Amino acid sequence: METVSLLWAIPFLLLLAAIAAMPFINAEWWEANHKYVALVLGGITGGYYIVGRGELGRVAESMHEYASFIALVGSLFVVAGGIHITIRGRSTPRENLLLLAVGAVIANLLGTTGASMLLIRPYLRNNGYRLSAYHVIFFIFVVSNIGGALTPIGDPPLFIGFIRGVPFFWVTGAMLLPWVTALGGVLAIFYAIDRRNYLRIPEELRREVAGEHDRTEITGLRNLPLLAVVIGSVFIEHPAFLREALMVAAAVASYLTTGREIHARNHFTFAPIREVAWLFAGIFLTMLPALDWLAAHAGALGINSSGGFYWATGALSSLLDNAPTYLNFLTVALGQAHLDVGSAGDVRRFLVSDGPHVLAISAGAVFFGAMTYIGNGPNFMVKAIAEHRGVRMPSFFGYIVRYSLPVLLPVFFLVWLIFFS
Hints:
The chain has one domain (38-420). Helices cover 73% and strands 1% of the residues. The protein is built from 18 helices and two strands. The protein has helices at residues 10-25, 27-52, 56-81, 93-126, 133-142, 156-164, 168-198, 203-210, 223-233, 242-257, 260-265, 271-286, 288-297, 306-317, 322-336, 344-367, 377-388, 396-420; strands at 84-86, 217-219. The chain has a two-stranded antiparallel sheet. Helix 4 packs across helix 5.
């Protein structure tokens, strides 16, 4: 079968442009019609694959991946929505810094999606008296992405590597110093911005807020076993759809057994997950040509250094699903050493001889997922929850120009300079 033309990535680019521009051109129209835009553009790509290329199986595979994605994100959204966390006091820059750092650690135990869904609501609530878009964006940077770089549970690309033969704790040891560097750099920038904005608040209000001492409290603890079911289900591969069925069952059980007062205190509605579900249905279909072109041509890109793998994996993980991007470049790296990515023994042998390449691919896939709203699954979900709470978030390109490029790119350059140059 002939390699797919990159011209078929145009629907993907149109969908990205619509996500970026339409909320500002006509927000009311977009809110009512975004699902149709996503489905029409996705239908164009899906129709091309089914009718034009006779690859129904490829579309079915993408939809299975989508089902797994939305089952995980949706079930975590529902189950975490049944857990209400009240944190003592109100957010000062130091307390925000601590919460983000703790969230980064938790992301390695619950995954970036699980940690994001568990912590975003109390984080928004504690910052309510001075909540700004940058609070949410740095939460996406830290908890939804960079934080989950230390274990295969933390982020899907690392889990792909674990399945292929990368030892569980190799990830922790190899990624620790890049993780500390990236996390420390982003948290330092956040603290400087947050402190500057905090000091602009009238001193009387700061004293009043400092005097508020809510009791730290967690309600809805009956959902913790259901949260464990969702996280544990990630490791189930066979039989087909058992993983997704367990996740959905846990979500249904959580929703039916959680008291209305907890949902009310969490401002829980299904609006954010509905938006994510529709848009990502279109994204999973329209990005097929770009992913398939990358799979066919990645080896011809002339990448043969750790730095090259870091930047290439990172750049494409910013816009495409970072899990297949990770796997494509891991395949290329092993292929250059005449090894098979399908063999766990070959993967382990490659780690001994060319571990820095795998480290670079891992760091690029996980870290750069923070560069855009669609770089990693939790990003758009956190954005949707924040907007539902009334936060005015920047556009798709506003996020990149105002935050990703000036904040993340220098930090990621530093990571490259220290570890991969």
